[in-house]
Design a protein that fits this description.
This protein is α/β, with parallel strands linked by helices and about 190 residues long. The protein contains 7 helices and 6 strands, in the order H-E-H-E-H-E-H-E-H-E-H-E-H. Helix 2 links the parallel strand 1 and strand 2.
Length: about 190
Amino acid sequence: VDSTILPAEIDALQNTHITSFLTTLVLDDNMIGDKGATAVADALRFNFSLEILSLNRNRIGSNGGDEMGGALLENVTLRELYLNGNILGDIAMRRFAVALRENREIKISVFEVENNGIGAHGIRGLAHALFRNRSIKRLALSQNLIGADGAGLLAQGLRMSNTLEHLGLSKNVLGDIGVKFIAKALRR
């Protein structure tokens, strides 16, 4: 079964709002790319019921991620966002971080961005967001490029977070120095 969303279907999504009663939308493995992510982002700006959005493994790059992050500056209902296995990188991660930091009404408690090529530059923004964000309980960052430098930055944010309960950092080449940063943050 081919689960690819065709360009005409992306255009249709872009020209309609996600229905007001829909609370969960799962579009995993549909190769929607940046154009599809932009369509979903446009819908999120006007939707006040969607609580769970899953866009795993969709080839969403920095442009689509940037649009999604911008939509989160306005959205106050989304509680869980799954973007694992895309190609967001640092630029999109910084945009998400701005939304998580600046939108005081944001409700996202689960934010999963595993396997997205996110490095220390993207983590820097996320660490700042953890200072102010009071909704994130689960943060999944496994299989990225965080390294020891990114772990040091993330540790700074962890020291100030009162809500984070689960942090996934597997396969990030943290090394012993990076793990020491995280361990020290846990001793606060």
